[in-house]
Amino acid sequence: MHNDAVVSKTNSTGLRWLWLSVVVFIVDQVTKFAIAKTFDLYESVAVTPFFNLVSVRNYGAAFSFLSDAGGWQRWFFTAIALFVSGLLVWWMKKTPAEQKWPAIAYALVLGGAIGNVFDRVVFGYVIDFLDFYVGSYHWPSFNVADSAICVGAVLLVLDSFLSPQAKEPK
Fold first, then answer.
1. Over 80: is that where the pLDDT of 102 sits?
2. Which of 28, 119, 128, 131 is flagged as catalytic?
């Protein structure tokens, strides 16, 4: 395909938001690298009365799901994330440029998924460092990639309720 045709196709679809996936990936990796280089494993620094920076390794999925499963989960979650990433790119390609919120949501989820896949493939675990808590109850630690995935998911849910297409009678 000619270069102008590729640019035209990208600008007329949700693919025009792929740059956001790249930004999410870069911010995620830079923050994880900074934590890995400046914190000892399990070190925690209080930032506010409800938030710490910590250094932990997540061998499982969200909220350490299957973290003690013996190692097979690394490749299982990597395969799932790569499959979903392919779907997200396909959905972005099928999304008209005018539907920016779903495309932004897909881009956020894609950037986060690739950020965590990178960790799994390179290190065998995902680096988590954001620790929010109330009293002695700590939310499971997470990272920028996890945040982008959650924000993208929330945007998709909100868009499904608020978009004009959702309000049209079927």
1. yes
2. 128
Neighbours of 82 (CB within 10 A): 14
Q: What is the pLDDT of residue 170?
A: 46
Closest CA to 91 of 74, 78, 110, 72: 110
Question: Confidence band (pLDDT; 50, 70, 90) for 155?
Answer: very high
If DSSP codes are grouped into helix, strand and coil, which group holds residue 118? helix
- Residue tagged active-site, from 28, 119, 131, 146: 146
The model's confidence at residue 11, banded by pLDDT at 50, 70 and 90, is: confident
Q: Cβ of 17: how many Cβ atoms within 10 Å?
A: 22
> Is pLDDT of 167 > 70?
no
Active site residue 28: no
Written as one string, the DSSP assignment of 84-108 is HHHHHHHHHHHSBTT-HHHHHHHHH
Sheet holding 51-58, edge to edge: 44-48, 51-58, 126-134, 137-138
Q: How far, in Å, CA of 108 to CA of 81, rounded?
A: 13
Alpha carbon separation from 122 to 10, 61, 127 (Å, rounded):
30, 16, 11
Tell me, yes or no, if 146 is annotated catalytic.
yes
| pTM to 2 decimal places | 0.85
Residue 44, beta-bridge partner list: 54
